[in-house]
Description:
By secondary structure, this protein is α/β, with parallel strands linked by helices. It contains eleven helices and twelve strands.
Amino acid sequence: MAPPRILVVDDNAENRALAKATLEDEGYRVDLASGGDEALTAFEAEAPDCVLLDVRMPGTDGFMVCAKIRALPTGAHTPIVFLTALRDVDTFDQALRAGGDDFLTKPVRPTELVLRIQAALKVSRLSDELRENFELIRRQRDDLMRLQLQKERLSAFVVHDLKNPVNAMDLHAQLLLTDPALSDRSRSSALHIREEARSLVRLLLNLLDISKSEEGRLAARAERVELGPLIAAVFEAFEVKARAGQLSLTHRLDATALTGDRDLLRRVIENLLDNAIRHAPPASQVQLTATPLPGQVVLAVSDAGPGIAPELRSTIFERFVQLDPGNKGTSRGGRGLGLAFCKLAVEALKGTLTVEDANPGARFVITLPQSLE
């Protein structure tokens, strides 16, 4: 029996080559088309068992190609899997209306691509009764997918719409601080407003970047980062918060520079420092160190707080995880987004983020390559 034939339609040569190599490694026969008209010609000539179809192409787009395939005598039941870089509910709904069977967002992981093609081929071989049951399950899956995409759209709107008023709060607090007649009590309040506004901005940016990471769009720039000025600026921003908690911030920088993304690295350090300050006991110390290793730089943020039990260290970086304060020695509360962002950002920087025992407290360790280039 001949292996199934897959028609891959994409105007990007690299995407076609990747899909071809991935599917041929699994034993499939693969035909390629670089555009809509070429795809329709190849479909009628080769009668593929499944079509992998890009949405955005010049000329005849994927939706129109799908509709035309469905109108052909041999195209009514051929599985069609859409590929798109647009992860939004409108594109998803349009793909379903055009007659698509499945929906994959770019960049596509090879394993996921193979599994989706396998599933589409299996469904095409089902009996009429089983296919009817599957259609019910697929409608439920599509409803869940639509809800997920709507949630992501709402998150993006919330982040965008809240950044402006939060930045305005910070700006007005800065204007208050320029008034020489401001009382000490009012000055302290304005400083606290600035600190809380910065916390809100970090939270909003964390939400945005976590969403970007899910879509494969969180990328790091390669630029020289001087650690001394960067750490000094972060410590200055947290001075009020540390003083309110009766904490001292210290650092030891044996490594002075690396090549990475300054903004991402700063926000990782800010989130880890904020986490440490929130859990450090009064009159204790929060320390940041930078240590050079061959081809690497190791940054560590340590506090003397309750620490994290070894069996819980693998979950602390998951979104919305807040460890149970009732478990002695494991209370690390918070919004559950800062550490999740840190993990994703460090991975974008080609590094690793781990947590270990600081005796007492917790030490978060970032291991980064000396250069992203």
